[in-house]
Design a protein that fits this description.
This protein is an alpha+beta fold. The chain has a domain of 260 residues: Rossmann fold.
């Protein structure tokens, strides 16, 4: 179907009532398409070259430190593979219809435990897997949510988080996977926060555990498995802070952790059990540490620093507490995974960059903790027939919002002079952060639509300090929406951008931002795509899974308070659909436990009743976003079709 034919359909779609919705199914009934025109075969052919890219992510090392177990996709979903040498063949080990999740190798063996859910429900189960036989075994009950696996050092006990007791509390459990029926609770959660194990001591009678209340408040405890008592170590103060354990030191006399108690950003720190004094180790670094991992022999810590979206890798000597920058990781890269080999002689790294797909690397480590060698690339992930070096690199810009707060944004522009139509891509979380990863989705938009793509890190994003993170909490929620208004103002000032043709896309909380932007800036948004977005905060908090409800209240506000209830209702987009002028594409997974399907269906119904054109794409075998390739491919096709009709329609008509 050509563009002219699609434009002919627009008035018809606009006039449809809720009872006249045009529905069809695809992919053996797993995809429901409502009011979406037939996808032209020519469009499928155009997008095919973008839809065969892969990635490779290090999950574990082999016990002998010679091979890597990686996550990648050769079929419809990501599975576990083994690779025995740099550039070697990727041998697939698991063959499930659902993607695998977290993988943890059992110390001293080649066996694994891994998590996997069904249909995107996120009620992950823990399985054991033997690579030699290819056999797997379900270890948990098949119903509750399970995860956060942590092996003791001898590989006899596995600690994990589970909601088995009552379906909502995130208790801590331990099992011997050889006798899963004897699994037992070692710490019973008394509130709605998340409790997870991080590291065992040498003798296996103590655990470092973390209590996560919300994105501003998390604490570290040490749990005695003998007494069942958990002793607070860091956090739990009147002023909230985030604290994440890394691991015990070599003598179990203290532990290393990340914290923002002592500054704006997450710093690496050390705490001795015999002293109440905390030693901050990275005061000289002016940006947040994203992640940190300690070597099996406890002599080194490798940590990644997030410098306004870009990544830097460091090594720290746990004895001297000195650290050094690893200069062999190229500038502009982002370290998305760190893994020490069991023999402590190599560091495995998963690295990504704007023009380099996510791939696996190793780096030899020297005899002293701060020594390291050159990177060796193990995988070369396919990017279809596209040259990754041709991918558009973003420009980092800053603009001032309504209160003069400086907002960072990454701007991707096609070749030429413009003025280019614009698609705003707003991240979720809400505390996530857009980073300049390798992004085939953006490249598809740039090539197929000729648009510029702008990804702002509005207030509330992580990576810019805890003050910035807190600027959208509770009653401040719509200040983040005003940041989008300021970005629209900035676009108007750019001669190579077309402010009359702006589309907006976002998923999860980003979906709420799409709906809110279309509500507040109705005449300035021409097309909007809401993926698994919140349409009403009150119904969202009521219907999201019970195990995560209190955590979300810490961010959005407690709807049980009458004043907050009234406020949340007042800012919910489904209460203001009459202000939305832009045509809408809504994407949803039927099994979404975070933002339930009801959030999308109530906004779709409200828009239709108001006479707004709305396309609705629902996957019956997905949850919070699309993970299966065949569904993702259709989403990409529908997105391009939608934007061509509604964002680029003036240009097409003029031609």
């Amino acid at each position: 179907m050509r563009i002219a034919q699609l434009l002919f359909l627009a008035p018809l779609l606009l006039s449809l009532s809720a009872e006249q919705v045009q529905t069809r199914t695809m992919n053996e009934g797993n995809l429901i398409l409502q009011d979406i025109p037939e996808i032209p075969s020519t469009l499928c052919e155009e997008l095919n070259r973008y839809q065969h890219g892969r990635y490779a992510y290090i999950q574990e090392w082999s016990q002998d430190s010679k091979s890597l177990f990686i996550e990648t996709r050769f079929g419809d979903v990501a599975q576990l593979h083994r690779i025995d040498q740099p550039g070697g063949a990727r041998r697939q080990l698991t063959f499930f219809s659902e993607p695998i999740g977290w993988v943890a190798r059992r110390p001293g063996t080649e066996q694994f435990t891994f998590t996997m859910d069904s249909g995107g429900s996120e009620f992950a189960q823990i399985y054991s897997f033997n690579p030699q036989t290819g056999r797997h075994q379900l270890l948990t009950d098949g119903e509750s949510l399970n995860g956060s696996m942590s092996w003791n050092r001898e590989g006899s006990q596995l600690a994990y988080r589970s909601t088995k007791r009552n379906g909502s509390a995130n208790d801590l459990w331990v099992m011997n996977p050889d006798k899963p029926e004897e699994a037992r609770i070692i710490y019973q959660a008394q509130d709605g926060s998340f409790w997870s194990p991080t590291d065992w001591n040498q003798t296996g009678d103590r655990l470092l555990i973390r209590q996560y209340a919300n994105n501003r408040d998390s604490s570290i405890y040490q749990l005695s498995l003998e007494t069942g008592e958990a002793e607070l170590q860091e956090g739990g103060n009147a002023t909230p802070s985030t604290n994440s354990p890394i691991g015990y030191d070599s003598s179990d006399q203290g532990f290393f952790f990340l914290t923002n108690q002592y500054g704006e950003h997450h710093q690496l720190a050390y705490r001795s059990f015999s002293s109440e004094k905390t030693e901050v180790l990275t005061q000289d670094l002016q940006w947040s540490i994203d992640s940190a991992h300690i070597s099996p022999d406890r002599t080194r810590i490798a940590f990644a620093v997030n410098e306004e979206g870009y990544g830097k890798l460091y090594l720290l000597d746990t004895t001297t507490k000195k650290y050094t920058r690893v200069t062999t990781v190229p500038d502009g890269s982002i370290v998305v995974g760190i893994s020490f080999s069991p023999n402590n002689e190599q560091l495995g790294l998963t690295i990504n960059a704007a023009n380099s797909a996510t791939d696996c690397f190793t780096m030899p480590l020297g005899q002293t903790p701060l020594e390291y060698g050159p990177l060796t690339r193990w995988t070369h992930s396919e990017t279809g027939n596209l040259d990754p070096q041709s991918y558009t690199k973003p420009e980092l810009v800053h603009y001032n919002s309504f209160d003069n707060l400086e907002i960072p944004a990454f701007v991707y522009k096609p070749a030429g002079k413009g003025p280019f139509p614009v698609i705003l891509s707003i991240h979720g979380g809400p505390e996530s952060q857009f980073r300049p990863y390798f992004n085939t989705r953006f490249q598809t938009w740039i090539d197929q639509l000729g648009v510029a793509v702008i990804a702002p890190n509005i207030r509330g994003s992580r990576g810019y300090g805890k003050t910035y993170l807190d600027l959208d909490n509770g009653y401040l929620r719509e200040d983040s929406v005003k940041d989008i208004g300021a970005l629209l103002d900035w676009i108007e000032q750019q001669p190579d951008l077309d402010a009359s043709r702006v589309g907006v896309y976002g998923a999860s909380y980003g979906g709420y931002m799409v709906l809110a932007s279309a509500t507040h800036f109705g005449d300035r948004i021409k097309a909007a795509v809401d993926s698994v977005g919140i349409s009403n905060f009150v119904t969202f908090l009521k219907n999201t899974q019970s195990y995560r409800r209190d955590v979300r209240r810490g961010e959005y506000g407690d709807e049980r308070d009458p004043e907050m209830l009234a406020f949340l209702e007042s800012i919910s987009p489904d209460q203001h659909v009459e202000k939305i002028k832009a045509p809408m594409l809504v994407i949803q997974g039927e099994n979404d436990p975070r933002v339930p399907v009801s959030e999308s269906e109530q906004i779709v119904t409200a828009l239709r009743e108001a006479g707004n054109p709305v396309w609705y794409l629902k996957a019956m075998n997905e949850g919070h976003g699309f993970r299966k390739k065949e569904n993702r491919d259709v989403f990409a096709q529908v997105f391009i079709l939608f934007m061509r009709e509604h964002l680029l329609s003036n240009t097409e008509e003029e031609q």
